[in-house]
Amino acid sequence: MRRVVVTGIGAVTPLGVGIRRTWNRLLDGHCGIINVNHTDARFADLPCQIAATVPAGKRLDGGWTASEWLSRDEERKMARFAQYALAASDEALQDAGWSPTTFEQKESTGICLGSGIGNFDEIYNTVVAYDKGGYRKVSPLFVPKLLINLGAGHISMKYGFMGPNHAATTACTTGAHSIGDAARFIACGDADVMLAGGAESCIHPLAIGGFARARSLATGYNNAPEKASRPFDADREGFVVGEGAAMVVLEDLEHAKARGAQIYAELKGYGCSGDAHHMTAPKENGEGAYLAMKKAMKNANFQPSAVDYVNAHATSTVVGDAAENAAIKSLLLGAGGKHKASEVNISSTKGAVGHLLGGAGAIEVLFTILAIHENVMPPTINLERLADGFDCNYAPKEAQERQIDVALTNSFGFGGTNSSLCFARLQDK
C-alpha cells in the first residue's frame, strides 16, 4: 500500500475565504455565526434564527463574490456548494503547486467531493415554480444543479482531471469519508494525486426549520449568535448550521517527493463504523465513535498513547458531545494509552464555524493538519463550564501551543455513520 501525504489545502468558511485567514481567525477566537433574519423574513418564524454564513465581500478582504472566482456561465450552471468547492480547490491546487498538463498527469489525478444536502435552494425554488406554472417553469439545469456529484464533475472538467471521479454523501460524515476514500484510491494505485473534500450551502428557512423540528439546533441564542455553538459546555443545547467548503490535495509520498512538493502531514489511518442504533442520535456510550477511532488507529499502527490531539466532531448537542467524550476517553485512557484524563487533548472548532454538515469533516481535517504543521491546538470557544465526566483538556477559549505529532479527527452523521482519520507528522522524508 502506498503512503499518502497532504500537499495542498484550501477553504471557504464562515470565518472568511481562504484557509490562512480562516485559521488565523480561528486561533484568535473569532466566530462566524450571525443572526440571519435580515436575509429572509421567514427566519423570524423559526425558533432558530442564526447560522454560520460565508461573509460577502471582496476576495482581497476575505469575502465571497462569486464573479471573482467563476465566469458568468459557471455561476449559472453550478450550485452554491459547488462554487465554494471550486474556490477551495483552486486555493488547494495552487498551494500544492500541482497543475497537470500532460495526459499521464491528468489521468493519474482524480477528485472526491461530497455534500450532505446539496442544492437545497434549487429544489425549493423549482418545486414552488412548478406548482405555480407547471412544466415550462422547470429549468433545463434543474437536474444537473441538483446532483451532488456534479460538484466533482464541474471541477474535474475545469482542470481536466481524468482519474477517479467520486462523490460521497453520508450526511455530516461526508467530508471525512471523501478524504478517506480518496486516500485509498492513492494507496491502492488508482491515482497519484487526489483533490478531496466536502462542501455545503443550504441555509434556507425550510432547511433550518427541518433541523429545528428534529430538535437538533440551538434556539436560545438568537440575540447572541456568537455564543450559540458551545461544544462540551454544560449549557450547550444544539448545533448551528454552517456553510462553506474545504479541499485537500492528497498525494502518493514518492510522487510528492519526486516533484519537491511541500508536505503538511501524512494520512496514516482511516476508520469507519455504523451505530446500528437510531436515525439521529448516537449510542450514549459512544460505541460507534469508539469503533471508528479504533479502526483508524489500527490502520495507522499507533498505540493510543501516541495521540497528541483529537479534533472532535462535537457539534454542541447534549447527547452527541457526551457520547463522543466517553468514546475518546475509552480509547485513549488505560492500557497502552494516557494515564489520566487531563493528558487527553480535545477541542471542537464548531464553536467558531458552526456545523458545515457535509463540509464539516473536511474543514476539520484542515484544522487538524494545521495543528500538526504548526504545533498548536485550536481553541474550543464558548466553553465556560464543564459538566460531570468532562475532565479532559479542551483548550477552553484559547489556543494552546504544544507538540502535536499525531492527531485524530472525527466525523459522525445521521443514520449512525461514523468516520475517523489519523494524521501524523511525516517522520522519514
Identify low-pLDDT runs: none
Beta strand count: 15
Instruction: Tell me about the largest β-sheet.
Output: 11 strands, mixed
Beta-strand percent range: 15-25%
Provide a compact summary of the structure.
The chain is α/β, with parallel strands linked by helices. The protein has helices at residues 19-27, 72-77, 80-96, 103-107, 120-133, 142-146, 150-159, 174-187, 205-213, 253-258, 287-300, 318-332, 350-353, 360-374; strands at 4-13, 16-17, 33-35, 50-52, 109-114, 165-166, 193-200, 244-252, 265-274, 309-311, 346-347, 376-377, 400-401, 406-413, 417-424. Helices cover 33% and strands 18% of the residues.
Strand and helix map with partners:
Layout: E1 4-13, E2 16-17, H1 19-27, E3 33-35, E4 50-52, H2 72-77, H3 80-96, H4 103-107, E5 109-114, H5 120-133, H6 142-146, H7 150-159, E6 165-166, H8 174-187, E7 193-200, H9 205-213, E8 244-252, H10 253-258, E9 265-274, H11 287-300, E10 309-311, H12 318-332, E11 346-347, H13 350-353, H14 360-374, E12 376-377, E13 400-401, E14 406-413, E15 417-424
Helix pairs in contact: 3-7, 8-14, 11-12
Walk me through this protein's architecture:
The chain is built from 14 helices and 15 strands. It is of the alpha/beta class. It folds into two domains: 4-258, Thiolase/Chalcone synthase (Peroxisomal Thiolase, Chain A, domain 1); 270-424, Thiolase/Chalcone synthase (Peroxisomal Thiolase, Chain A, domain 1, 3-Layer(aba) Sandwich), CATH 3.40.47. The strands form three sheets. Strands 1, 2, 5, 6, 7, 8, 9, 10, 11, 14 and 15 form an eleven-stranded mixed sheet that branches. A two-stranded antiparallel ribbon has the order 3-4. Helix 3 (80-96) crosses helix 7 and helix 8 (174-187) packs across helix 14 (360-374). The longest helix is centred in the first third of the chain and has 17 residues, at 80-96. The radius of gyration is 20 Å and the shape is globular. The chain starts with a strand and ends in a 5-residue tail after the last strand. The mean pLDDT is 97. One of its GO terms (cellular component) is mitochondrion. Pathway: Lipid metabolism; fatty acid biosynthesis.
